């Protein structure tokens, strides 16, 4: 049996130059390095100066296309996951398509699934490849969360950061067995009964402005552990593997305590769980592709490894992907 498999052949990321430390935040709100470090694991985060979300998406995409050994002309689909687009409309993806110089007519759109956005976008692109509609896709998570954070609210402003990550997917062939490379399984979920537990305080039609992030931290915390674990376990099983086969878990980077709990529930040693929340903060849809690209570049994650992405965010939405590199 021959199957079409979407292989990840390129990766890229971008982080704004400006870095905010916990001590910097202690000058803005009533907080301190000890509280932030122990409760969240975050030490520093990058924040945009003059960059827009599309600028970060562009830099990450250029790197991913370059690593893939392709040119923009090869891209047949662009999907951007973001909750912080440059404009409410049109999409970041169309702006990016024009700037990259992809062929006119190449479909490009944004999706909003909050911190699960990258896994949602990856799943859609993978499905289009597996259906044979396209061969090559560019998938990006890009966020300027510093723009929707209330910098007077210590409950939220210490948690988030800005950045972008991207991957290039290309159709390959598999046999439906353990020799297969590429995206082996994906699974998406949502439960809108949690709409109010993590949201912005405004929006286009409700307040005519973007509002600021607000959340019930404890409710998010509890739900995140269960849903991130469920998504990872499900895709590993769908792919025909067990948790012991996982080389790397890349969970959404919201909080070190959530990440450690999920690793433990999956029975993984801490060394197999990728952590970037310490120097990125929570970058929502950008968190997984950013962590992935950084660790591909450093050589920590290698070709042939079994990598599991697991994400959870506002909505609530959650989902996972199992990938053999
Ligand atoms: N500095 C100092 N003190 C603070 C800060 C701060 N930055 N923020 C809150 N506090 C105080 C609170 O006011 C509270 O004080 P009080 O007891 O006098 O009222 C105290 O610290 C404890 O607050 P809690 O909310 O109980 O702290 P908790 O241990 O639950 O940690 C946190 C809060 C870190 C937000 C945690 O609930 C969490 O990580 N939740 C997950 C939320 C998350 O990561 N959201 C991101 C988006 S969701 C996602 O990406 C999946």
How would you sum up this structure in a few lines?
This protein has 325 residues and is of the alpha/beta class. The protein has helices at 22-26, 33-40, 53-67, 92-100, 117-130, 154-157, 204-207, 217-238, 256-265, 277-280, 287-297; strands at 3-14, 19-21, 44-46, 78-81, 108-111, 136-144, 162-174, 182-190, 198-200, 213-215, 248-251, 306-313, 317-324.
Keywords, separated by commas or semicolons:
325 residues; binds acetyl coenzyme *A; 11 helices; four-stranded mixed sheet; alpha/beta
How would you describe what is shown here?
By secondary structure, the protein is of the alpha/beta class. Helix content is 33%, strand content 26%. It has eleven helices and 13 strands. Strand 4 (78-81), helix 4 and strand 5 (108-111) form a beta-alpha-beta unit. The two termini are 21 Å apart. The chain binds acetyl coenzyme *A. Acetyl coenzyme *A binds next to helix 2, helix 6, helix 8 and strand 12.
Ligands and ions found: acetyl coenzyme *A
- Per DSSP, the total helix count is 11
Query: Averaging pLDDT over every residue, what do you get?
Result: 97
Terminal Cα separation, in Å? Answer: 21 Å
Q: Walk across the major sheet and give the strand order.
A: 1-7-6-4-5
Uncertain runs with pLDDT below 50, 5 residues or more?
A: none
What summary fits the major beta sheet? 5 strands, mixed
């Amino acid at each position: 049996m021959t199957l079409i498999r979407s292989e990840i052949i390129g990766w890229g990321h971008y982080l704004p130059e400006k870095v905010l430390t916990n001590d910097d935040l202690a000058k803005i709100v009533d907080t301190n390095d000890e509280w932030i470090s122990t409760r969240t694991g975050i030490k520093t985060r990058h924040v945009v100066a003059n960059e827009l979300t599309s600028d970060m998406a562009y830099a990450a995409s250029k790197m991913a296309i370059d690593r893939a050994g392709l040119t923009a002309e090869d891209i047949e689909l662009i999907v951007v996951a973001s909750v912080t687009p440059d404009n409410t409309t049109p999409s970041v993806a169309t702006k990016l398509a024009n700037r990259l110089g992809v062929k006119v007519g190449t479909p490009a759109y944004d999706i909003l699934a909050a911190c699960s956005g990258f896994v949602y976008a990856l799943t859609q692109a993978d499905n289009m490849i597996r259906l044979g509609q396209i061969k090559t896709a560019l998938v990006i998570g890009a966020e300027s969360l510093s723009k929707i954070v209330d910098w007077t609210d210590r409950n939220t402003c210490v948690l988030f950061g800005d950045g972008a990550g991207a991957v290039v997917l290309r159709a390959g062939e598999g046999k439906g067995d353990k020799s297969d490379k590429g995206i082996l399984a994906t699974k998406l979920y949502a439960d809108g009964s949690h709409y109010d537990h993590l949201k912005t305080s405004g929006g286009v039609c409700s307040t005519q402005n973007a509002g600021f992030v607000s959340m019930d931290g404890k409710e998010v915390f509890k739900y995140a552990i269960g849903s991130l674990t469920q998504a990872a376990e499900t895709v590993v099983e769908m792919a025909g593997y067990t948790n012991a086969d996982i080389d790397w878990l890349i969970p959404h980077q919201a909080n070190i305590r959530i990440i450690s709990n999920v690793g433990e529930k999956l029975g993984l040693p801490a060394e197999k769980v990728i952590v970037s929340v310490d120097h990125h903060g929570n970058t929502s849809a950008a968190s997984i592709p950013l962590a992935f690209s950084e660790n591909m570049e450093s050589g920590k994650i290698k070709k042939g490894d079994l990598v599991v992405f697991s994400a959870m965010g506002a909505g609530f939405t959650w989902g996972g992907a199992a990938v053999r590199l």
